[in-house]
Amino acid sequence: MTNAVWNANLSVILQFLLYCERRGIVEGVIGLRNSVQSYNILLLEANPYPVHRLASKIVEPDEVVIPDDASFEAVLAAREKLVDNPVLRRRDTLLTVVLDEGLRRSEAARLPIDVVPSAQEVSALRSAAKASGIMRPVPIRVQGAKTGVGRVVDFSLSLVERLRVYIDEDRPFLGPEKAERSIFVSSRTGRALNPQSITNQYFRARSNAIYTARADGVSEWEIRDMMRVHPHVHRHRCITDSMTSKLEHGLDPLHAMLDVMNSSGITLETMLGYLHLGQSRRKSVLMKQGLVDQLKDDIVLERLKALDESKLRMISRKRRSRK
């Protein structure tokens, strides 16, 4: 049992004991530290849930480990083999590319047709790119799955072109309901894909990939790496790669975080949890830009944690107003 699971179960027990303490059924058993009353169990926090973290020598990292590219590609290759229908295969492949843009499963599954430029508009964008020699990204409006607040995500022109072709040529063969506006629909129901069905498909592909890998004598370490593959890893990789790229191009770490937060629709707290940049890699990038000297690996992030989110948002608004 992990610390997280143990603490979740412990919280239920503590809630019951706290209930008894507050109603006078027991006395001096559990409560917050104070100068008047002493308790056998001292809580760190009592509202809304009691907190009494387990002391353990085992360190469980908060960061989700991103699987190696080879493990990820092995699962994606197995996923392609799950379906024979070429239209469904193209749908699933395109959905994977959309997930690579940092969208959550539900955001990708319910991405509406209306956000994709028309065929004429896409053609005009391609002509402009050829004339200028610059391939500009296409802003796509995404409805946030958690907050309901919309945000703009930059899709590459080539991805937008693929989406347009799929909408016009492949999607009709899946029998979408007349009122259904989602790009990715189920061939069985004609409605938007269920986000859980995406997860289930990845899990089946992962099982097949692991079975094949074991038959080929792949190491147990590589097998464990494959077991980390799931749809949300696309989002983890996108945020990580975006942050790394901005740092490597000399953008200030604070502004780099703001840019990624805005495009990904996440809070500062979540952003810090999403950072999967390797310790040595992150430090080396910052040292190259002269932003840190011989500092400990996490000193920059520790400083960022000290900034409250309202200040970050204020800086973000000032930056946007200057554009």
From TrEMBL:
Keywords: DNA recombination. It comes from the Bacteria. GO terms for molecular function: DNA binding. One of its GO terms (biological process) is DNA integration. InterPro entries: DNA_brk_join_enz, Integrase-like_cat_sf, Integrase_catalytic. Residues 65-287 form the Tyr recombinase domain. This is Site-specific recombinase XerD. It comes from Pseudorhizobium flavum. The lineage of its organism: Bacteria, Pseudomonadati, Pseudomonadota, Alphaproteobacteria, Hyphomicrobiales.
